[in-house]
Amino acid sequence: MTVNIDLVKQLREETGISLADCKKALEESEGQMDKAKEYLEKRGQAVAAKKVDRAVNNGLIETYVHSSGRIGVMLEINCETDFVARGGDFKNLAHEICLQIVAMKPLYVREEEIPEGTVEDKKSICLLDQLWMKDDTKTIQSLINESIAKTGENIVIKRFIIYEF
Asked: Is the pLDDT at 36 greater than 90, yes or no?
């Protein structure tokens, strides 16, 4: 199926995924935008799964202090290269995760860190399992997977700390 270039451009603008991948997604979904987005999301998850073992030796420390000055967060988020770490998309991802942490106050990054016998809901205390506050159809892990698909690099949240009065 031949796909309209304007549709490819629109999907590219909405997702940030490469033009070639957007074109392929639209071809696979017969020009339907919603199905193309689903295709790209599934592809992003597959790409993320392949990159999980790759070393993440670069990254950045992102901080956020709420306007009240009574709560703040410091986040260490890592990627494979300094090129990606210095990029706007990666910095924006780090900022969005900081906002999530301040708003939702998770206790752990991932489920493996939760001590045995903890009876609290894992989705409320584990950052990666939380629904993203700006789009409750996505978890923080799926937000990271989207960034992995865009950058082509593994991205890992190492740790965070919340400061609060």
From this structure: no
CATH of 5-51 among 1.10.10.60, 3.90.226.10, 3.40.1650.10, 1.10.8.10: 1.10.8.10
DSSP assignment letter at 68: T
Q: How far, in Å, CA of 153 to CA of 80, rounded?
A: 6
In a 3-state reduction of DSSP, which class is residue 16?
A: coil
Calculate the alpha carbon distances from 93 to 7, 26, 62, 96 in Å. Answer: 26, 26, 10, 5
5 has a pLDDT exceeding 70: yes
pLDDT of the residue at 1: 67
CA 73 to chain centroid: 18
Strands 131-132 and 71-79: unpaired
Homologous superfamily (CATH) for 58-164: Elongation factor Ts, dimerisation domain (3.30.479.20)
Which residue's entry shows tokens 């986040």?
75
Please answer whether residues 27 and 4 qualify as being in contact, where contact means their C-beta atoms are separated by less than 8 angstroms.
Answer: no
- Whole-model pTM: value is 0.79
Q: Does the structure show a pLDDT above 90 at 163?
A: yes
